[in-house]
């Protein structure tokens, strides 16, 4: 007797370990219920980091990130960390899907530590950038499903006695930027701000001012980028990397610099004159 049950094609023996998984079975029976490869719109909202900037100065590099994270059209986190120290002379900033990005940053730091312990010496900055590129490339299958991770890598190169910046694409392409770079949803506006103000021979303090101002410009135009939050006391994380190593600027220092930027822009908008701060190479 023929079994004509309408669900027979989709019913599998519960002890048949060669049968597809439940998600595969559901995709076969009700394909519209499952997100398809590359179909970002069918994915549930996930937490995303936004804007990271980096700029070189005379003797090192500054890398900074805003603190806002979004989930769809909602603000998910207001104080998220997006800058991670990866070893004594380098750091990575994350943008894109927060979960995979944070995991990538932590694994990358562990890989560098492991290399140093096994080899007895630090990997070159070029080698670190190449390693990170391969890790980003390994995330490509997830990126095709909408879980994109695009880091920004910065560090001090003792071989050349200078700060260097590397950015990446979703396929693991690695590109060096000699002056400044930005990534994330507000990168277009941050990069324009950096381009307008950057100049050769910046001091460390001037580079910090430049990074804070560029994040402010990004937040002013991009809703996913968070500006300085004076009510909650949340300010961008700004790290300085030079021959002495990685150090994060004190939050009170960043708050004061943000206040100076705000006052300068308020004066300009109220007709008090052209914006003059931050000025390249000017001491705060």
From TrEMBL:
Residues covered by region (Disordered): 264-284
Chain segments annotated as transmembrane: none
InterPro entries registered for this protein in UniProt: Ntn_hydrolases_N (IPR029055), Pept_T1A_subB (IPR000243), Proteasome_sua/b (IPR001353), Proteasome_suB-type (IPR023333), PSB_actinobac (IPR022483)
GO biological process: proteasomal protein catabolic process
GO molecular-function term, one example from the UniProt record: threonine-type endopeptidase activity
Catalytic reactions of this protein: Cleavage of peptide bonds with very broad specificity
Protein name (database record): Proteasome subunit beta
């Amino acid at each position: 007797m023929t079994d004509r049950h309408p669900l027979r094609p989709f019913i599998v023996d519960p002890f048949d370990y060669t049968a597809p998984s439940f998600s595969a079975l559901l995709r076969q029976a009700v394909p519209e219920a499952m997100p398809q490869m590359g179909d970002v719109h069918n994915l549930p909202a996930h937490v995303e980091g936004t804007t990271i900037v980096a700029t070189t100065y005379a003797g090192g590099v500054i890398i900074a990130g805003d603190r806002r994270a979004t989930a769809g059209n909602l603000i998910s986190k207001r104080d998220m960390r997006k800058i991670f120290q990866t070893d004594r002379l380098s750091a990575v900033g994350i943008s894109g899907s927060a979960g995979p990005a944070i995991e990538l940053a932590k694994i990358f730091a562990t890989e560098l530590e492991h290399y140093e312990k096994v080899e007895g010496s630090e990997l070159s900055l070029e080698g670190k950038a190449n390693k990170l590129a391969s890790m980003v490339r390994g995330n490509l299958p997830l990126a095709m499903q909408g879980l994109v991770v695009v880091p920004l890598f910065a560090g001090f190169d003792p071989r050349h006695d200078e700060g260097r910046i590397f950015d990446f694409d979703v396929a693991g392409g690695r590109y060096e930027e000699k002056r400044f770079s930005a990534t994330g949803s507000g990168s277009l506006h941050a990069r324009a701000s950096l381009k307008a103000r950057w100049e050769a021979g910046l001091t460390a303090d001037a580079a910090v001012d430049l990074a804070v101002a560029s994040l402010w410009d990004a937040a002013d135009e991009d809703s996913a980028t968070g500006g300085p939050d004076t009510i909650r006391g949340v300010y961008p994380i700004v790290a300085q990397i030079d021959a002495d190593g990685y150090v994060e600027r004190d939050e009170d220092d960043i708050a004061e610099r943000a206040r100076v930027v705000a006052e300068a822009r308020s004066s300009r908008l109220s007709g008090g004159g052209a914006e003059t701060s931050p000025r390249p190479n000017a001491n705060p």
